[in-house]
Amino acid sequence: MNVIISNNSDKPLYLQIKEQIKEAILKGELQEGDLLPSVRAFANDIGVSVLTTRRVYDELEEEGFAVSRAGRGTFVAMGNPELLRDSKRRMVEEDLQKAIHSAKLFGIPKEELQQMMDILFEEEE
After folding, report:
1. Which element (helix H / strand E) includes 69?
2. In the prediction, which pLDDT does 76 show?
3. Do 64 and 44 fall within a single domain?
4. Do 65 and 89 sit in the same domain of this protein?
5. What percent of the chain has pLDDT over 90?
6. Count of domains in the chain?
7. pLDDT at 83
8. CA proximity to 68, closest of 39, 30, 25
9. Which of 3, 11, 83, 120 lies most in the core, judged by the most C-beta atoms within 10 Å?
């Protein structure tokens, strides 16, 4: 698992890490049942404290993205399918918000933005 953290980001480290793990799960890079690295090993790999990593794993478990098994480790859990769909929608909405902001900033009208999105969407199929 490739996690990149930025000291220049406004987001706390634990949130940067958690979001990247969730994104990997939602994109299918991490599958249900995959074993996540141990808290200590993961903390060492990415250069953060074990408390930060523990917080990430605890929150992933609370949100239904991971499950811990005593003595065995923390595993990816797919949880509620509706929760996963909603999380995917939120990721897309965030990207669309950025695109809308940029379009407004550069004076691109809604109709032109929609046309651009239609063309790009069709090219991906």
Report:
1. strand 66-69
2. 93
3. yes
4. no
5. 61
6. 2
7. 72
8. 39
9. 3
Length of the chain: 125
| Shared domain check, 91 and 49 | no
Confidence bin at 79 (pLDDT 50/70/90)? low
Q: What is the mean pLDDT of the chain?
A: 90
Q: Are residues 33 and 63 in the same domain?
A: yes
Q: What is the DSSP letter of 35?
A: B
Looking at the structure, tell me whether residues 72 and 90 fall in a common domain.
no
Q: Estimate to the nearest angstrom the gap between the alpha carbon of 4 and the chain centroid.
A: 12
The whole domain housing 49 covers 13-76
Strand partners, 74: 68
Q: Which residues contact 26 (CB under 8 A, 6 or more apart)?
A: 84, 87, 88, 91
Coil, helix or strand for 1? coil
